[in-house]
């Protein structure tokens, strides 16, 4: 096999006919300025060619159902392995996707609990064990040679009745003695039982000594009891009594379990999911605080947000009538209304009352009676009954998610949570951090039989948990929703999954895996990358981190500049080779010739602060934090310490709700102070900015709006009566009708990649001839 990956004539995007030789089974770092062409070479050329070749190996029938990647602009790539990309795209936005499901750990947990989990009675909490006849015989033999035992069949347990017929039938079948309410009685004699009292009736089958020659006799007694007592056997040894059960049921409380299967632990299956929330763990409900976000306002001032209150519109008329009926003024601030009255406005009275509404329409007064059910029940009914997506979306603005009242956020049915391993049900395990989960399974005590069944499953679970610890994600919980993960966290989870797969001979391409990682965890990540390499894989990493570069087998510096000034291989080799290259900006920083300058004077912190009091979300422990205004503030800490929770989930959302009436609910905190010093909050995160193929930097930054305004004010545009909309490629009028303003025509090729050609009418200029005449 070729020991190198050879690239010749790569010209994708800004690459300038790049030729490169990369050694296989090494850790290689691509570095350089942002925009120099690193991602173009790694993802758009090497990875794209790998995917293209894989798809080419499939049949033409299969290819038409798969997304096609365009063949990159490169002359030749030799020695290319199967390529896997691990980028920083956010994890699934599906609310059902969790860390446990993404890593497949939860799938193994479901199998583990189905195979060795111990069910418990929901009433008394006793263990329920299902035993075969052979296991029951073993239990009796375990008492020891020569021990005396009695075998009884519990035909009635804690039920009322006289049981004349049952006792007669038992006597006819040849049984001589029964134990009734702990007293042995002879069936040949008349037995009278109180009709309205609970009774226990057990048929005495045998009294014997535990001996090897009595095994057949013990087996026969047990089988008789199982038939008589519907799967139950009572064993008396000395002064102790033992109920043995052939079925998953509690003999004391008449509670039965269905067969334990992996699907009853799945919150994506109707067999396991909580019926109230369908396995989501949360329920969307109308939030009174979103319905009335500012209680300083009165109803007439628009305090009730969903109503769009105006004095002369429909809702204005209705609430004027409600105010008359309930005895308050619509001009009174909401925070001055009695609490019970506000509850009646929001939730209605226990028995809804009719109100008399005077509605002015077309110059006439219409009087009718309306049953007032309360704002929130009215919104809930509209949400349920409306078929309009717009109406439902509008009502959702006033809804917030809260833990499901039935499962309390645990997603599963109550029956599934009664099954435990090591005294913990499956939800308690997923609520622990990855590190604590690993400790739990490493210290788990199992019987020989359980260990024989679960050994391979436990090995997989522990290995995958260990991989998550190694990539610095030991602070995550397995029930953490995948959509709440940062891009770097999602990437490291995918990395851990790949290590767990044990593939060899693969080319892995990663995009800055160290982003968001604390220096404490950096070395563990590098150990993981080296382990991936040592399995027999080539690991190609786009990275700016110095520690990663120093541990790499090879560094490729791409540049020297960005955009049109980049696209060349500036230097290639070890870190010493990079430092020796005078054109390498990376080398100059590594050598210390260039540094990020520190300010000689820092801006003074004034007396204006934003203060968060009592932050309690996730792992935050009742924090009070003062954020100074007018200065550059850095929030730092190890991975998982609570930085994002404090800043993104509490500070930003609380400010957005206070200043911009945003509907998102912030994390738990007591209060926020200092909002009077601000008028707006903006969060700049890692989410992509472009929503459509038509979006570009000019449209996103609104510069294009100014450009369109400018063109509409030219002399030629005024003569022709062109407005700014004429110069938009998103609307009819000024854009090219042939390509709809795209500038290109898409030609579908079915099982081949789609072909894009410049529009033959506008030649890729996106506008029609008349619009382009305005200069």
Task: Give a verbal description of the structure.
This protein is of the alpha+beta class and 775 residues long. It folds into five domains: 4-90 and 486-591, P-loop containing nucleotide triphosphate hydrolases (Rossmann fold), CATH 3.40.50.300; 131-246, 2-Layer Sandwich (Ribulose 1,5 Bisphosphate Carboxylase/Oxygenase); 282-403, ABC transporter ATPase domain-like (Helicase, Ruva Protein, domain 3), CATH 1.10.8.280; 609-677, no CATH class; 697-772, ABC transporter ATPase like fold (Up-down Bundle), CATH 1.20.1580. It is built from 26 helices and 29 strands. The strands form nine sheets. The protein has a six-stranded mixed β-sheet, sandwiched between helices. It has a six-stranded antiparallel β-sheet with strand order 9-8-10-7-11-12, with helices on one face. A hairpin with a 2-residue loop joins strand 11 and strand 12. Helix 4 runs antiparallel to helix 16 and helix 5 packs across helix 7. It is globular. The model has no long low-confidence stretch (mean pLDDT 87). It is found in: Cytoplasm. InterPro entries: ABC_transporter-like_CS (IPR017871), P-loop_NTPase (IPR027417), UvrA (IPR004602), UvrA_DNA-bd (IPR041552), UvrA_inter (IPR041102). GO terms for molecular function: ATP binding; ATP hydrolysis activity; DNA binding; nuclease activity; zinc ion binding. This is UvrABC system protein A. Belongs to the ABC transporter superfamily. UvrA family.
């Amino acid at each position: 096999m070729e020991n190198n990956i050879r690239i010749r004539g790569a010209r994708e995007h800004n690459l300038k006919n790049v030729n490169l030789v990369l050694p296989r089974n090494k850790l290689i770092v691509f570095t350089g300025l942002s925009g120099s062409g690193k991602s173009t070479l790694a993802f758009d050329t090497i990875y794209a060619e790998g995917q293209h070749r894989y798809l080419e190996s499939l049949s033409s029938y299969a290819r038409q159902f798969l997304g096609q990647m365009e063949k990159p602009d490169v002359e030749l790539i030799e020695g290319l392995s199967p390529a896997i990309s691990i980028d920083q795209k956010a994890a699934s936005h599906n609310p059902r996707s969790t860390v446990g499901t993404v890593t497949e750990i939860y799938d193994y947990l479901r199998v583990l609990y189905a195979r060795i989990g111990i069910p418990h009675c929901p009433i008394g909490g006793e263990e329920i064990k299902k035993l075969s006849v052979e296991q029951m015989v073993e239990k009796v033999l375990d008492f020891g040679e020569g021990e005396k035992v009695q075998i009884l069949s519990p035909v009635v347990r804690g039920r009322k009745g006289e049981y004349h017929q049952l006792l007669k039938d038992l006597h006819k079948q040849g049984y001589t003695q029964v134990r009734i309410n702990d007293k042995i009685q002879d069936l040949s004699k008349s037995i009278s039982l109180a009709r309205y009292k609970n009774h226990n009736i057990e048929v005495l089958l045998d009294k014997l000594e535990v001996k090897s020659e009595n095994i057949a006799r013990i087996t026969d007694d047990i089988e008789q009891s199982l038939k008589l007592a519907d799967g139950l056997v009572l064993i008396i040894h000395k002064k102790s009594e033992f109920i043995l059960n052939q079925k998953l049921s509690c003999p004391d409380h008449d509670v039965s379990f269905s067969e334990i299967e992996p699907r009853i632990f799945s919150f994506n299956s109707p067999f396991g999911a909580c019926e109230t929330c369908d396995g989501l763990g949360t329920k969307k409900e109308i939030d009174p605080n979103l319905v009335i976000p500012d209680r300083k306002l009165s109803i007439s001032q628009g305090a009730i947000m969903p109503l769009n209150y105006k004095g002369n519109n429909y809702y204005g008329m209705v609430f004027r009538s409600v105010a008359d009926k309930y005895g308050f003024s619509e001009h009174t601030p909401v925070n001055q209304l009695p609490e019970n009255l506000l509850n009646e406005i929001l939730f209605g009275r226990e028995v809804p009352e009719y109100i008399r509404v005077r509605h002015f329409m077309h110059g006439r007064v219409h009087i009718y009676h309306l049953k007032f059910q309360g704002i929130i029940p009215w919104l809930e009914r509209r949400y349920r009954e409306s078929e309009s997506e717009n109406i439902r979306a509008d009502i959702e603005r006033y809804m917030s998610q809260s833990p499901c009242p039935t499962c309390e956020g645990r997603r599963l049915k109550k029956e599934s949570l009664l099954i435990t391993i090591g005294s913990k049900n499956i939800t308690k395990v997923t609520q622990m951090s990855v590190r604590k989960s690993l400790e739990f399974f490493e210290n788990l005590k199992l019987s020989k039989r359980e260990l024989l069944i679960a050994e391979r499953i436990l090995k997989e679970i522990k290995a995958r948990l260990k991989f998550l610890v190694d990539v610095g994600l030991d602070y995550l919980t397995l029930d953490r929703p995948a959509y709440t993960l940062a891009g770097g966290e999602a990437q490291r989870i995918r990395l851990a999954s790949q290590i767990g797969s044990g593939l060899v001979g693969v080319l892995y391409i990663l995009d800055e895996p160290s982003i968001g990682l604390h220096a404490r965890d950096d070395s563990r990540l590098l150990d993981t990358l080296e382990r991936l390499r040592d399995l027999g894989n080539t690991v190609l990493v786009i990275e700016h981190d110095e520690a990663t570069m120093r541990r790499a087998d090879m560094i490729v510096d791409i540049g020297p500049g960005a955009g049109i000034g980049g696209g060349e291989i500036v230097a290639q080799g070890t870190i010493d080779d990079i430092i020796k290259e005078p054109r390498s900006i990376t080398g100059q920083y590594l050598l210390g010739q260039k540094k990020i300058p520190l300010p000689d004077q820092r801006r003074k912190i004034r007396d204006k602060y934003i203060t968060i009091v009592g932050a309690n979300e996730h792992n935050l422990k009742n924090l009070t934090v003062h954020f100074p205004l007018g200065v550059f503030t850095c929030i730092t800490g190890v991975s998982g310490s609570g930085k994002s929770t404090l800043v993104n989930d509490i500070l930003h959302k609380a400010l957005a709700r206070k200043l911009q009436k945003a509907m998102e609910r912030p994390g738990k905190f007591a209060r926020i102070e200092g909002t009077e010093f601000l008028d707006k909050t903006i969060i700049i995160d890692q989410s992509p900015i472009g929503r459509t193929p038509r979006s570009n930097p000019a449209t996103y930054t609104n510069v294009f709006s100014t450009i369109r305004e400018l063109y509409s004010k030219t002399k030629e545009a005024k003569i022709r009566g062109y407005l700014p909309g004429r110069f938009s490629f998103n609307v009819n009028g000024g854009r090219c009708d042939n390509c709809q303003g795209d500038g290109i025509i898409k030609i579908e090729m079915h099982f081949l990649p789609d072909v894009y050609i410049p529009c033959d009418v506008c030649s890729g200029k996106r506008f029609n001839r008349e619009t382009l005449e305005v200069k």
